[in-house]
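Job type: complex structure
Entries:
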Amino acid sequence: MTTPTITAFERSPDGGKGLARDMRVRWALEEVGQPYEVRLVSFAAMKEAEHRARHPFGQIPTYEEADLVLFESGAIVLHIAERHDGLLPRDTNGRARAIAWMFAALNTVEPPIFERSIATILEKGEPWYEQRLRTLDKSIRTRLTDLSRRLGDAEWLDGTFSAGDLLMVTVLRRLGSSGILEEYPTLSAYVARGEARPAYKRAFADQFAVFEGSGKAQT
Amino acid sequence: MTTPTITAFERSPDGGKGLARDMRVRWALEEVGQPYEVRLVSFAAMKEAEHRARHPFGQIPTYEEADLVLFESGAIVLHIAERHDGLLPRDTNGRARAIAWMFAALNTVEPPIFERSIATILEKGEPWYEQRLRTLDKSIRTRLTDLSRRLGDAEWLDGTFSAGDLLMVTVLRRLGSSGILEEYPTLSAYVARGEARPAYKRAFADQFAVFEGSGKAQT
């Protein structure tokens, strides 16, 4: 198999916290033991034709493997999960349910969390900021209450650790210093279990090394 | 194969326009020629334990087939596409790229569009409404400009019609009467091509019949 190449921010705006979407792909690759190369891209280069040929929306991450070029972190994680053992159950129904959690993470839980992280940057000086934040926090809490109730005492969302948990943990981590995650001990513990996985730690260290300027990533 | 049962709104808030997420699943089932049953749920019933066992976030659609229960429209459409011909290319790379478009529709293009539809309902009276709408419209236009450029003169996003196009068309339709889609003739024509498909028309008619109160759906 060709060693895949992914793209990541040359300078991640998250200060090395592993909140950018390349973290999901790095983590998935570490879980399945697949080595990879990293091409760092600047914000300017992301919007140029060469990168847009890889990613129509001029974002990261992308994934290149021989003549396959993919974009969208969810699709890349699913591609990795389908080609290696360890991220999807082998039984057909369990596999379909794990994929449902992948979509739930990205289409149901992430949107209000992402919206909040953008609002804290772009709307901070606006007169309505406090009220807007309350509205967003309410949507987020609705999702987290439901998610927490479903998770209950289980270790992972549906049986063993899957690509659904991988995406959900990265999405919940985007709540960062908002303090909202901490209101849900069940979910805080769930995120901590994800962060404790050796593959997570390796992926985190690698993206942090880029932030620290000591990454061995190819350019 | 067991006839699957999906859930849909007993009273869709969209006035029969086919903007609710059951439309995606209906359309996918029609494309592959799979008959299905519909269980209609009220807003109150969606939040009760029986439905939450199917859908942790108390939403529609869900999909039941023998002992498999799924939620998330994207996951359901993918499940259908994997089990029948017609919604995913047969070659491995083309399949992975079609799935990338599915995630792009739901995680990159839909969030600002959905956010706008919610804002026009919930924030209409707020002092920040005009400015908020301008911000949202700007994000939407950024996405549509990129999408329109990538589509270019092609009929579909990547080769033949796929589950990626199916989801993208339903997402773009959510722009409704905003007038934004009409600024992009390439994308308007793309949506019209989707709506012209016989399977789309059958799915649309079926959801409209529910709205009109003449649906033969099971309860």
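Summary: Chain A touches chain B at residues 52, 56-59, 67-76, 78-79, 92-93, 96-97, 99-100, 102-104, 106-108, 110-111, 114-115, 122, 126-128, 131-132, 135, 143, 146-147, 149-150 (CB under 8 Å). The domain at 92-197 of chain A is CATH 1.20.1050.10 (Glutathione S-transferase Yfyf (Class Pi); Chain A, domain 2).
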